[in-house]
Amino acid sequence: MQLTEITFAGATPIDGYGPGFFRVAGEVLEGPILVTVAWARSWGGYDDSAPLLGLLEEVDVIFMGTGAETAHIPTDLRNILEEAGIGVEVMSSPAACRTYNVLLSEGRRVAVAALPV
Question: Is residue 95 packed enough to be buried (19+ CB in 10 Å), middle (13-18) or exposed (0-12)?
C-alpha cells in the first residue's frame, strides 16, 4: 500500500483537539471555533449565527461539530442557514474536524463550526 502525505497548500487545517480546546494551524483556541480555508477564530456557539451567514459566498457546506457526541443543532439555526443557502452537516466535533481536513486537502469550499469535546 502506498501512503500519500496530505498537504494543505496554505489552508488552515485542524491539527488536534482536547477537553475544551482545538489546535488549528499550530495555534491553540479554547472554546467553540469557526474555521475556514483562510482563518480560524473563536465562535460564540449556536446563538452566534452571524459569522456563519457571513460565509455564504465562501463555502458550500459547514460541518457543525456538536461536541463529543452527535446531537441536534437548534432548529432555528438550521433553518436560518438552510434558508440562506448554506449546507449544514451535523456530526460530533471529532468527526467534523476529520471530515473538514479531508475535504480541505481536496481543495473544497468547506468550514467547520465546532463545540469542544
Answer: middle
Cell numbers for 46, please give them: 449556536
Residues 6+ away with beta carbon under 8 Å from 77: 46, 49
Q: How far is CA 69 from CA 25, 46, 56, 64, 66, in A?
A: 24, 16, 27, 12, 6
Can you give the length of the chain in residues? 117
Supply the Cα-derived Rg of the chain in whole angstroms. Answer: 13
> What does each of the 117 residues of the chain score in pLDDT, given as a tens digit?
665 555 656 689 999 999 999 999 889 999 999 999 999 999 999 999 999 999 999 999 999 999 999 999 999 999 999 999 999 999 999 999 999 999 999 999 999 999 999
Query: Could you give the CA distance from residue 105 to residue 97 in angstroms, rounded to a whole number?
Result: 12
Amino acid residing at 26: G
